[in-house]
Amino acid sequence: MVKPYVFITRKLPEELVQPLRNIAAVEMWDQEEEPVPYELLVEKTKKAAALLTMLSDKMDENIMKEAPHLKVIANLAVGYDNIDIGAATSRGIVVCNTPDVLSDTTADLTFGLLMATARRLTEAAEYVKKGEWQGWSPYLLAGRDIHHKAIGIIGMGNIGRALAKRATGFEMEILYHNRSRQLEAEKELGATYCSFDELITRSDYIVCLTPLTNETKHLFNAEAFKKMKKSAIFINASRGAVVDEDALLQALKEGEIAAAGLDVFTKEPIDQHHPLLGLSNVVALPHIGSASIETRTAMIQLCIDNIQLMLESHKPKTVVNKDVLAQYCSS
């Protein structure tokens, strides 16, 4: 019996992949950071029954129409804006993601990014390393308080709620905006639902955790930044394209907002000469929201589990387009 072919688009730890080799012919791209060239991904997908993909892998209709055997795409992320879900669903391809397992880890990073930006931690660390610390003054690298301030969370999903829980430890006023009200979060965390405009007007810290959709693309534009407090700090740990980066650059340069902490960018990796990186009031990270050893291992394991379950005609654990399942899965 010929084993189904599975293609993995990054080099992953062999001990995690090995169980999949018992039921499938597995091929892994041999690079840890460099993405698979699109043309090669097209060729590999043509014969694949399953793919384990990264956010940087563009899974569009052109790829899927050339993939007659493809049953499942397991995406190593919560978000799946790199995948054409409509095209996958119309072709009976199950799409899986990795929710829940990374919520706490991403919330840790997001709050850490907020703290680093507010208290100018990366700037201060470089100040010492460069030998610029020659004395003390009352306002030397003075940042802004976090405790007792208002945090506005755009996108109150699992990560948003985990972030709000951390904010309670700093006795912050928690405002949020979401497609639907989260009554449990309001009850347990004291969060207050606001319109988008009210949130960005009132908040000292505006944290973007919303998924990227047609409706949220460039949600944070020039008009939005103009409505924020001049002392406001903007944090983005969702998707880069939710922000108009030109508008953000202008807002920071003109003092419309105080600072920004960014874990994501419209184009990744971001060019080292991008003007945002030249600003001292920007803290930039390389999209590491869920990057703890424990969490990334759990995410990879979940992807492997989902592929195994699909290939054995069982229901995967985390499915995006559940309507497709009936034709494949017995349980």
TrEMBL record:
Segment forming the signal sequence: none
Domain of life of the source: Bacteria
Record key words, sorted: Oxidoreductase
EC number: 1.1.1.-
Domain D-isomer specific 2-hydroxyacid dehydrogenase NAD-binding: residue ranges: 111-289
InterPro entries (alphabetical): D-isomer_2-hydroxyacid_DH, D-isomer_2_OHA_DH_cat_dom, D-isomer_DH_CS, D-isomer_DH_CS1, D-isomer_DH_NAD-bd, NAD(P)-bd_dom_sf
An MF annotation (GO) of this entry: oxidoreductase activity
Pfam families (alphabetical): 2-Hacid_dh (PF00389), 2-Hacid_dh_C (PF02826)
Domain D-isomer specific 2-hydroxyacid dehydrogenase catalytic, residue spans: 6-321
Family according to the record: Belongs to the D-isomer specific 2-hydroxyacid dehydrogenase family.
Protein name stated in the entry: 2-hydroxyacid dehydrogenase
Species this protein is from: Bacillus songklensis
